[in-house]
Structure formats: C-alpha cells, structure tokens
Write a structure and sequence with these properties.
Blueprint: E1 7-10, H1 19-33, H2 40-59, H3 65-79, H4 86-100, H5 110-118, E2 122-127, H6 131-140, E3 149-152, H7 153-156, H8 163-173, E4 180-184, H9 187-195, E5 200-204, E6 217-218
Length: about 230
C-alpha cells in the first residue's frame, strides 16, 4: 500500500471496460439488425484507427459529438469501398450508442484489482465518454458500486487532458492532487493530463506498444498492486 496515495482515479474505456471487444460485438449486432452486408473484420480493421483519430479531434474541440458519431462511420465505410446512404449511417450511429452498453466485457483482472484497492483507497472514475452511456456501462458490467465519484467531461464542458477536468474531479472527490493517482490507457489524455496538475500516474498500456516514456507503465491490471 502506498500511504501517500488516498484516492485512485481510473479512466473507463480501454482501461477497465474493454471498448474494442464490446464495440466489435455491437457492430456485429447492429449490422445484422439493419441487414448491412459488410465483412465485419474488414470494417473493424479500419474503424479502430479512424475512431481514435475522431476522439482526438473531439478532445481538442475540433469536432462535435454528432460529427464524431457520423464521421467515424462514414470514413470507415468509405475506406472499405462500401456504398451506404447517409440516413442509414445516422440510423447505425444511434443504434450503436443504444446497444453498446449491452455488451460488458471487462479487461482481465478488473474485479480482482478493484476488490484489492477498495479496502485501501477511495476509487473514482474520470471519463471523456458520452455521459448517457458511461453510467450504463458501469452498472451493466457490475463495477459502478466501486466508485465514490464519477466525473464525465460533459459535466465540465471540456475534455481530458484539459486540467479543468482533473480539478473538477479532485474537487468532487474532496481530494488533493498530491494524494491522488490517475490510471488510464491514453498517454496524452490520462497520463500527461493528470501529471500536469501534480497527480501521480500509471499508464495502462494494454497493447504493450509504448514503452519509451518515463511514466509508470503496466500491461496487466494485476500489476497495479506493485505500485499500490
């Protein structure tokens, strides 16, 4: 146990909640429901990087929520040369959000590490995800009760890595930066954002592809025990 730390803040998507797996299952479901005759593996192969790029633009206030929801699908279909009408893209966009929380795969070790931490620290969530779906994800996957507070970027009006999000979360939690640690997958949004306001950090590099920085880094949630 790290006695200097009292509050542990987690990102949700790509950190506890297995976004890639759940997203793929959601697309499989809504493509079948809407009779979209596309090879799922080809779509997902291009969609993942397009989605990440749109989320980066969204964090930087360069696209709106609606532009993100439409654009990531439009570009993915274009990338695999699949012709689809705009009204169908909008239908799929809504269906995706409606169905995403019906799949609730978590990263290996999520319950074990939360059980380990909850007796030693106060746990919290800070997420850039859409407010209307993040609560559903946590409830449906059985992890909501672990967290004392949940800060969503839409509450603040800006997104991680903006310091306002982290300061809002700290105030909500009645916590100081020096007694808090942020655990997340995004080096930019979670780790550098939290570090810049004086929080300790652990980078969850679940794809094990970024090891050239000086921040604490793990590739398995279980390893959090080495630091906390």
């Amino acid at each position: 146990m790290n006695e200097e730390i009292k509050h542990v803040f987690f990102d949700l998507d790509h950190t506890l909640w297995d976004f890639d797996k759940n997203s793929g299952l959601t697309f499989e479901k809504i493509f079948k429901l809407n009779q979209i005759d596309v090879k799922l593996i080809d779509f997902l192969e291009v969609y993942e990087s397009i989605n990440l790029r749109y989320w980066r633009l969204y964090r930087e206030e360069k696209v709106t929520k609606s532009a993100l929801r439409y654009g990531r699908l439009k570009e993915a279909f274009d990338a695999i040369d699949f012709t689809i009408e705009d009204d169908i893209i909008h239908i799929l966009s809504e269906a995706y959000i409606e169905n995403l929380s019906s799949f609730n795969h978590l990263f290996k070790g999520t319950f074990e590490i939360l059980d380990y931490l909850q007796d030693k620290y106060v746990l919290h969530i800070i997420t850039n995800g859409f407010e209307e779906i993040q609560e559903k994800k946590m409830i449906s996957s059985g992890i909501r009760h672990y967290f004392e507070t949940v800060t969503n970027s839409e509450m603040v009006g800006v997104k991680k890595p903006n310091p306002k999000v982290f300061n809002f979360a700290l105030n909500l939690a009645n916590a100081d930066a020096g007694e808090s640690i942020m655990i997340g997958d995004s080096l930019e949004a979670d780790i550098k954002g939290a570090h810049n306001i004086g929080m300790d950090t652990i980078h969850f590099d679940y794809k094990d592809n970024q090891n050239s920085h000086s921040f604490k880094r793990i590739t398995n949630l279980k390893t959090i025990e080495d630091y906390l």
